[in-house]
Design brief:
Elements (H helix, E strand, L loop, with lengths): L1 E7 L13 E7 L7 E7 L2 E9 L7 H9 L5 E9 L4 H6 L20 H13 L4 E8 L2 E2 L8 E2 L6 E4 L3 E3 L6 E3 H13 L10 E4 L16 H9 L3 E7 L5 H19 L2 E2 L11 E8 L5 E4 L4 E3 L4 E9 L5 E5 L11 E3 L4 E7 L2 E10 L18 E9 L2 E6 L3 E5 L3 E10 L9 E4 L17 E3 L15 E9 L2 E11 L3 E8 L5 E4 L3 E4 L4 E9 L7 E11 L7 E5 L5 E7 L2 E10 L1
Parallel strand pairs: 4-5, 4-6, 6-13, 7-8, 9-12, 17-22, 25-30, 33-38
Antiparallel strand pairs: 1-35, 2-3, 3-5, 5-14, 9-13, 10-11, 15-16, 15-18, 18-20, 19-21, 21-22, 23-24, 23-26, 26-28, 27-29, 29-30, 31-32, 31-34, 34-36, 35-36, 35-37, 37-38
Length: about 575
């Protein structure tokens, strides 16, 4: 049967060789207490892909703080997928599992609850990986035999955990010696730990055995990765009893580094960067007006019934931030609008640590309304532009160049200012080359949705070779600030597939691969320059039989000795293709 099979791809990213290391950042469930941030780091040379999960249980800071350090790493070889805060809500609460243990929800029927939705994302990401590490902090010190109440086989701390000593993948026959791998890693770790009490040991939960005391591990992340994708998967446990968070983070780093070395990833060593969090200012919009900056501790004076929205937190950290408007909303009120009727506080939080606050004070109802907040400084300045691309919000400093992809849906949401605008006409934000209302072109383009491959006039591009457009803040004929948007041509970099259940094969755009009639092919991912692969589709042209009995993105069996072409498109525009030659 000859089929065209089209599948929309979400958040898939294998890895071409690059001139420099590159990072990609995806956000799911944005601006909720469950925000899930995923970071993909591509090395300059091809190599295996390691996935690191931290924070799946929110009261284990050694794991999520260690994973967070690797986000800023550059790689010479290999790739990383890092999910530093898999269960952000539990981290904010500093609770192991407010909705139950998330690490007991893998491989189960989707329930539609938020934990299940997060787990489904993690399961999808595993398809792109060659090894999985799940970082934890556990009580006590694991020992193969009973030493004391705090050091015995029932404790978890200071261990590398696997579900079996050995595992043979039923479909491929590939044998994974998990114990041997773990012992090599443990040897490297313990060489760097002086105190023998803190040495690591191998723990086999014997998850497959009927007599296992850890049958609940059959719904864990490591068991799912091992049994569904046939990749080695390990839990890394530091002890909750270690004397400091810094020591927990350091020993997690030792384990990650040892696994990376063993599997051939070549990194730069991350530093332990654990400064006390500091709030510089928050950017707040009052009654949908132009947002302004309010410093830590500086009162925000409002009238009863005013609405506010916190749209940015400026801190010495970029990740793990949330805000809580006390008495309103949820545990994370970032970028949500609220009506203020009573005095309260906006509290800034880094993970579970509260570190700054802004008092909200109410004017007497009979007083004459004045300017909304007190500003950080009186001198007027446009600080940044707020841009939405395909529904994802970005904050771009004035004067900077922002990269997007031709065909993206783009919206200029607003600007963030400091101080009072100069007297005169109202401020206008003008995307040069776009006309929001052809019947009445005022130049004001905030809020308009721009189809970038159709709605922009070529003659306004700042370059003849590229599509670069200016976004300007104007007052009358004066330009007060500007940024630029470069629209890059959409392209396919590489596609990843598995043949007959074997390892991931990374194929560059335009490549061909020789396979056999009767082979089973699984498409497990692709890499484009489209963020999160939004709107990207892959189609199969050739004589195939589609396989629906797999969790892979796309799977089929080759029927005849004739080429099969994998064609990648976006909005009908071809990004690239891979040809499978049938031998």
């Amino acid at each position: 049967m000859r089929l065209w099979v089209a599948v929309i791809l979400v958040a898939l990213a294998p890895w071409p060789a690059l001139a420099t290391s590159r990072q990609e950042h995806m956000v799911y469930f944005r601006d909720t207490p469950y925000e899930l941030n995923v970071y993909k780091i591509s090395g300059r040379k091809e190599g295996p892909t390691m996935m690191i999960i931290g924070g799946i249980q929110g009261d284990e800071p050694g794991g999520f703080l260690s994973a967070d350090l690797y986000i800023d790493m550059a790689l010479k070889k290999g790739n990383l997928i890092i999910v530093p805060r898999a269960n952000f809500y539990s981290i904010l609460r500093f609770d192991r599992g407010p909705h139950g243990d998330m690490n007991r929800k893998f491989g189960k029927k989707a329930e539609g609850d938020i934990d299940s939705r997060i787990v489904r994302k993690l399961e999808t990401l595993m398809a792109e990986c060659d090894i999985l590490l799940n970082l934890h902090d556990g009580y006590g010190y694991y020992r193969p035999t009973h030493v004391s109440e705090n050091a015995n086989p029932l404790r978890y701390g200071q261990s590398i955990i696997a579900d079996a000593d050995r595992y043979v993948c039923p479909r491929t026959g590939r044998e994974l010696d998990l114990k041997k791998t773990a012992l090599k890693v443990i040897e490297k770790i313990n060489e760097q730990i002086e105190n023998p009490e803190y040495h690591f040991h191998f723990m086999n939960t014997r998850t497959f055995e009927d007599a296992s005391p850890y049958k609940e591990q059959r719904a864990s992340a490591t068991y799912y990765a091992l049994t569904h994708y046939g990749i080695p998967a390990f839990g890394v446990e530091t002890s909750k009893n270690l004397p400091s968070v810094e020591m927990k983070v350091h020993q997690h780093n030792l384990a990650i580094n040892a696994f990376m070395e063993l599997f051939g990833l070549e990194p730069e060593q991350p530093r332990i960067y654990l400064l006390e969090p500091e709030l510089k200012y928050m950017v707040v919009s009052v009654n949908n007006q132009v947002p302004v900056a309010v410093a830590d501790g500086q009162p925000l004076r409002l009238s009863p019934g005013d609405s506010i929205e916190v749209i940015h937190v400026e801190s010495n950290y970029d990740r793990g931030l949330s805000v809580d408007i006390l008495g309103l909303g949820t545990i994370n009120d970032f970028r949500r609008k609220f009506t203020i009727t009573n005095p309260t506080f906006i509290v800034a939080q880094k993970d579970h640590i509260k570190f700054g606050r802004i008092p909200i004070e109410l004017r007497p109802s009979e007083s004459v309304p004045g300017p909304a907040p007190v500003r950080v400084a009186e001198k007027f300045q446009v600080l940044r532009f707020i841009i939405e691309v395909e529904g994802q919000r970005h904050e771009v400093p004035a004067g900077q160049l922002f990269e997007a992809v031709d065909g993206d849906l783009l919206k200029v949401v607003d600007i963030v200012i400091q101080g009072a605008p100069p007297p005169g006409e109202a401020l206008v934000v003008n995307f040069k080359g776009f006309v929001a209302d052809p019947g009445k072109n005022t130049g004001e383009d905030r809020g308009a949705l721009i189809q970038t491959d159709k709605d922009l006039l070529d003659r306004y591009s700042l370059s003849k070779q590229e599509k670069i457009y200016e976004v300007a803040v104007e007052q009358g004929k004066r330009t007060l600030a500007a940024m630029r948007v470069r629209l890059n041509k959409p392209r396919l970099d590489s596609l990843v597939l598995r043949r007959n259940g074997g390892p991931n094969l990374k194929l560059r755009n335009g490549a061909s691969l020789k396979i056999q009639a009767g082979d089973h092919v699984q498409v497990t991912g692709l890499k484009t320059n489209v963020p999160d692969n939004r709107g990207v589709e892959v189609a199969v042209k050739g004589t195939i039989v589609k396989d629906t009995q797999t969790r892979a993105l796309l799977a089929f069996k080759v029927e005849k000795v004739e080429p099969v072409t994998l064609i990648v498109t976006r909005h009908g525009r071809t990004l690239g293709q891979i040809v499978l030659q049938i031998g």
